[in-house]
Design goal:
The chain has helices spanning about 5-30, 40-55, 130-145, 170-175, 175-180, 225, 235-245, 265-270, 280-285, 300-305, 345-355, 385-395, 410-420, 445-460; strands at about 60-65, 70-75, 85-90, 110-115, 120, 155-160, 185, 200-205, 205-215, 220, 305-315, 325, 330-340, 365-375, 375, 400-405, 425, 440-445. By secondary structure, the chain is of the alpha+beta class. The strands form four sheets. Strands 1, 2, 3, 6, 7, 8, 15, 16 and 17 form a nine-stranded mixed sheet that branches. Strands 11-13-9-14 form a four-stranded antiparallel sheet. Bound molecules: ligand BES and manganese (II) ion (2 copies). Ligand BES binds next to strand 14.
Length: about 475
C-alpha cells in the first residue's frame, strides 16, 4: 500500500472550483457538433483545446488524425513504477443543438442558472460529455498541482465521433493497442440516482440503428388520378412499423428474444431496493405514467429489457396547406436497444427478414445500417470497482448504488473486445439533465462532487497495486 495524501488534493479541488467552472465554460463555448461537417473546424478546435489543457497539466498529449474527427491521446508517466494503469475515455463531440428556438439561452453560450440544487450550467454538452469528462481532467490537474505527480499511471483517449457511431474508434484501437492498453478504462458518461445518491453503472444497453426506405411509384402521383389503384409507400411503411410490436408491447421479430438473458434474481432484488423516484423520473419528461412490458418494474424495463423505437418518419407532403399526392417514397429511422447477450448483427438480419416479408410486389425496400453497439455487463468484483465505491462513499457520505443504464456507450464493448479491458462507469449526470435535448444542463454540485470523487478514486486506485507483483 502506497502512502498518498488525498486530503490536500480534495482541498485543492475546493479552492480551485470556480476556475474549474471557468474552464468548462470555455470548452462549452466551442460548438463541436461532430456529426455535422459545417462544424468540423469547431470540432477540431475542441480537440485542440483538450490537448492544450492536458499539456498544461503535465501530460504528453497529441491530436491524432483519423478518417473522421481527430482523437485526443495523452499519457502521464509521473506515477511510481508498478502502479496500476488507468485509461480515461471521454468524448468531446456533442449532439446537434436543434431545435434552437426551444433553448432559453443560446446552446453554445453557457448560462449559469439557479435551480433547486444551486447553480447549474445550461449548454449543449454540459453533461454529455464535456462536463463529465472535465470531472476527471480537473481531478488529474488537482493531483498534479498538489503532488507534482499522479499516484497511478494514466492514459487518456477522447474521441469526437461518439454521438455519430464512433466510426474511427475501432480502427484506432486496433492500430494503437499497445499504446492504449491499461488495467481498466474509466468513463464518466452516465448518471446517478440523485445529487446525494451516487451510482456506479454495471450494465449498459446496446443499440442497433437503421434507416429504412420504401419506394413504389417512379414519382409522386396525383391521388385522384391514381388513388385506389396503386400502392402507397406510406401506408406500407406504417403497417410494417405497427407490426413491430404486439398488443403487449413485445417485439415481434422472430428470434428477437432468444438471446435475451433474464436478469439474475439477485440483481432483480438489488434493483428493487434502489430508491428510484418513478414519479419524478416521469415528471421530468412531462408524463404521469409509464408504458411497456407488463409484469416488469420500470427499472427492469429501462435497463434490462430490449426496445424498438421509431426515431423519425417522413414522406409525402408535409408543408403548409394540402397537396393531393401519392408519394413515391416513405422513410423511417428505427433503433433497437439491446441487452445481454443480443448481438446487433443478429437483430439486423431478423429485421431484414421481417420487413422483406412485408414488402408487397411493386415496392422496393432499402435498409441502411446506421450504427451498432453491443450491450455489456461490467464485473462487480473488480478491485477498481471496489476502489470507486470507497471513493464515492467518502465524497457523498453514502454508499453508491449499482445501477444499469438504458443508454449506450458502444466504446465499452469495443475496448473489451479489442483491448481486453473492462470499463468502470462513474457518472455524475441526473435524469432531468435533458441529455440530447434543448436546455441540456449540468448541476455544479454534480460537477464538484464528480471532481472530488475522481480525485479520491485516484488515491484508492493507487492502493490496489499494479502489475509489479515482485515489488509487493
Ligand atoms: N452519454 C450517452 C449515453 C447515455 C445516455 C448515458 C443517457 C446515460 C444516460 C452517450 O453519449 C450517447 O448518447 N450514446 C448514444 C449512442 C449512439 C449514438 C450509438 C445513445 O445511447 O443513443
Ligand atoms: Mn455521452
Ligand atoms: Mn450522447
Amino acid at each position: 500500500m502506497r502512502a498518498v495524501a488525498v486530503e490536500p488534493v480534495l482541498a485543492q479541488v475546493e479552492r480551485e472550483f470556480e476556475h474549474s467552472v471557468d474552464r468548462l465554460v470555455e470548452l462549452l463555448r466551442i460548438p463541436s457538433v461532430g456529426t455535422d461537417p459545417a462544424f468540423d473546424a469547431d470540432t477540431r478546435r475542441a480537440a485542440t483545446w483538450l490537448v492544450e489543457r492536458l499539456r498544461a497539466i503535465g501530460f504528453e498529449a497529441s491530436l491524432r488524425p483519423t478518417e473522421g474527427q481527430p482523437m485526443v491521446v495523452a499519457h502521464d508517466r509521473s506515477a511510481p513504477a508498478g502502479a496500476p494503469h488507468l485509461l480515461y475515455y471521454g468524448h468531446y463531440d456533442v449532439q446537434p443543438a436543434d431545435p434552437l428556438e426551444l433553448w432559453q439561452s443560446p446552446p453554445f453560450e453557457p448560462a449559469r442558472v439557479e435551480g433547486p440544487h444551486g447553480p447549474r450550467l445550461v449548454a449543449r454538452g454540459a453533461v454529455d460529455d464535456k462536463g463529465q469528462l472535465m470531472t476527471w481532467v480537473e481531478a488529474l490537474a488537482a493531483w498534479k498541482a498538489v503532488h507534482g505527480a499522479l499516484p497511478v499511471r494514466v492514459s487518456v483517449l477522447i474521441e469526437g465521433e461518439e454521438e455519430s457511431s464512433s466510426k474511427s474508434l475501432e480502427p484506432f484501437l486496433l492500430a494503437n493497442r499497445d499504446e492504449l492498453k491499461a488495467d481498466v478504462c474509466v468513463i464518466s458518461d452516465t448518471g446517478m440516482l440523485g445529487v446525494d445518491q451516487p451510482a456506479i453503472t454495471t450494465m449498459l444497453r446496446g443499440i442497433a440503428y437503421f434507416e429504412i426506405e420504401l419506394s413504389g411509384p417512379a414519382h409522386d402521383l396525383h391521388s385522384g388520378m391514381f388513388g385506389g389503384a396503386v400502392v402507397n409507400p406510406i401506408h406500407v411503411l406504417c403497417r410494417m412499423l405497427a407490426d413491430l410490436h404486439d398488443s403487449q408491447g413485445r417485439i415481434r421479430l422472430p428470434g428477437f428474444y432468444d438471446a435475451v438473458v433474464e436478469l439474475p434474481a439477485e440483481q432483480k432484488a438489488q434493483w428493487a431496493a434502489i430508491p428510484f423516484d418513478e414519479r419524478a423520473f416521469l415528471a421530468a419528461a412531462g408524463l404521469d405514467r409509464s408504458t411497456g412490458e407488463a409484469g416488469r418494474s420500470i427499472l427492469e424495463r429501462l435497463w434490462a429489457r430490449p426496445t424498438c423505437d421509431v426515431n423519425g418518419i417522413w414522406g409525402g407532403y408535409t408543408g403548409e396547406g394540402s397537396k393531393t399526392v401519392i408519394p413515391a417514397r416513405a422513410s423511417a429511422k428505427l433503433s433497437f436497444r439491446l441487452v445481454p447477450d443480443q448481438e446487433p448483427a443478429a437483430v439486423a438480419a431478423q429485421l431484414r427478414t421481417f420487413l422483406e416479408a412485408r414488402t408487397p410486389e411493386g415496392c422496393r425496400l432499402r435498409i441502411t445500417e446506421m450504427g451498432a453497439g453491443t450491450p455489456i455487463r461490467v464485473p462487480t468484483d473488480s478491485p477498481f470497482l471496489a476502489a470507486a465505491r470507497r471513493a464515492l462513499a467518502r465524497v457523498f457520505g453514502k454508499e453508491p448504488a449499482l445501477i444499469g443504464c438504458g443508454g449506450s456507450i458502444p466504446v465499452t464493448a469495443s475496448i473489451r473486445r479489442h483491448l481486453g479491458m473492462d470499463s468502470l462507469l462513474l457518472g455524475f449526470g441526473l435524469d432531468d439533465d435533458r441529455v440530447h435535448s434543448p436546455n441540456e444542463k449540468f448541476e455544479l454540485v454534480c460537477y464538484k462532487r464528480g471532481i472530488l470523487a475522481h480525485a479520491a478514486f485516484l488515491a484508492e486506485a493507487a492502493s490496489i497495486g499494479g502489475r509489479a507483483p515482485a515489488a509487493r
